[in-house]
Specification:
Blueprint: E1 2-4, E2 15-18, E3 24-29, E4 41-42, H1 47-53, E5 60-64, H2 68-75, H3 82-109
Parallel strand pairs: 1-3
Antiparallel strand pairs: 1-4, 2-3, 2-5
């Protein structure tokens, strides 16, 4: 089943399960109102089912994280829209931060030169 989110929080392709119902969803869309939030919109088969579901705060289990790279690839041609620009900027910032953390961890593992006493 389909769901929408801010792809910088839950990237394209993220699979999750709603803990209470065991329903599984995949993030395959985004929405302007979702940018900058940890909110996920669920798509239900009918308007009635969507209305019955309403707005809920639920626990989810992430089954598989989506791809930030794939999210960037899909969003790149859509950057004329402000909401997409925000997601792209956030994804790029996370990517840069991840590289910095990796380099820092590699530097801490390098043998340090011995100091002469």
């Amino acid at each position: 089943m389909s769901a929408a989110s801010d792809w910088s929080h839950f990237p394209l392709g993220t699979r999750f399960r709603i803990a209470d119902t065991n329903e599984e969803y995949v993030i395959d869309d985004y929405g302007i109102a979702l940018i900058g939030t940890d909110t996920i919109d669920l798509y239900k088969p009918s308007r009635l089912e969507m209305k019955q579901w309403g707005v809920r705060h639920v626990n989810i289990d992430i089954l598989q994280w989506g791809s930030e790279e794939q999210s960037l690839k899909v969003l790149a041609p859509r950057c004329k829209h402000r909401c997409v620009q925000k997601m792209v900027a956030s994804l790029q910032q996370k990517k840069t931060q991840g590289k910095k953390e990796l380099l820092a961890s590699l530097d801490s593992k390098k043998p340090q030169p011995k100091k002469k006493a």
